[in-house]
Amino acid sequence: ETPYETILVERKGRTALLTLNRPKALNALNLQVMHEIVAAAEELDRDPEVGCIVLTGSDKAFAAGADIKEMHPQDYMDMYLSDWFSAWDRLGRLRTPTIAAVSGYALGGGCELAMLCDILLAADTAVFGQPEIKLGVIPGIGGSQRLTRAVGKAKAMELCLTGRTMDAAEAERAGLVSRVVPAEQLLGEALAVAETVAEMSRPVAMMAKEAVDRAFETTLAEGVRFERRLFHAVFATADQKEGMAAFVDKRPPAFTHR
Ligand code: CAA
């Protein structure tokens, strides 16, 4: 019924759940996984009934990296001409808020995939790292950039140069993840956060995401200017009228996502 072989797609109200499903390979991210995740996520992104997308893996592995067996035989021209991994960038351009729910290994491309999401929730079993250097390569899905922005230069350098991993507690201290929860509560917590986000005004949530994301791309003055323009723009939404009216009337808002 689903057109996908390596992922599962489920809908729960206004939340969509994407589950990596290559258990025998610890969810290693081959090109098929990449194309399926990106296609599924972009389809959900176009759906006005979807307010938040959760991406998760298995208990043992969110994803143990890009597929080493698939990359092993490739040469420079193969990588360059196919622009290997470039489709992953499209995940970072979704307008719908995304949550990575990470349990177990999030290594190499797995860590990079988690960092492509907007909110990163970790189980206490989560293990993060960019161990590519141990294979004689470097991160290729943005890890050297996003990890550095998330945890700072010293820790990013250490992880990328030694390949050592960090556990969930260290990842939270370093600011890579927003919260750590017991493994058995991870999915429930991620879906609860997703539902909270999905019940907010969809266009306003999109603008909030766009504003935060701009902080990674520009100067403080430009970012504040960008935020101010979006702040003014939300006053063109019906949901601003509703949200503020509901507060004044002491009742919950009924957003129409317009
Ligand atoms: N690619 C392909 N296959 C992988 C894989 C990967 N990244 N990670 C695990 N697998 C496969 C294993 O080969 C094994 O397959 P077989 O049963 O056919 O032998 C299966 O998944 C189970 O793995 P292990 O037996 O190794 O499981 P373990 O519990 O003993 O170890 C692990 C778990 C420590 C995560 C180990 O699997 C491991 O080190 N994996 C590789 C981690 C890694 O180096 N990731 C970075 C990849 S490079 C990258 O991601 C580049 C980039 O920037 C995008």
UniProtKB/TrEMBL annotation:
Top-level taxonomic group: Bacteria
Protein name: Probable enoyl-CoA hydratase echA8
Family designation: Belongs to the enoyl-CoA hydratase/isomerase family.
Alphabetized PROSITE patterns for the sequence: ENOYL_COA_HYDRATASE
GO BP terms: fatty acid beta-oxidation
Coiled-coil residue spans: none
Catalytic reactions on record: a 4-saturated-(3S)-3-hydroxyacyl-CoA = a (3E)-enoyl-CoA + H2O; a (3S)-3-hydroxyacyl-CoA = a (2E)-enoyl-CoA + H2O
Functional note: Could possibly oxidize fatty acids using specific components.
Top enzyme class: lyase
Alphabetic keyword roster: Fatty acid metabolism, Lipid metabolism, Lyase
Enzyme Commission number(s) from the entry: 4.2.1.17
Pfam families associated with the record: ECH_1
Molecular function GO terms recorded: 3-hydroxyacyl-CoA dehydratase activity
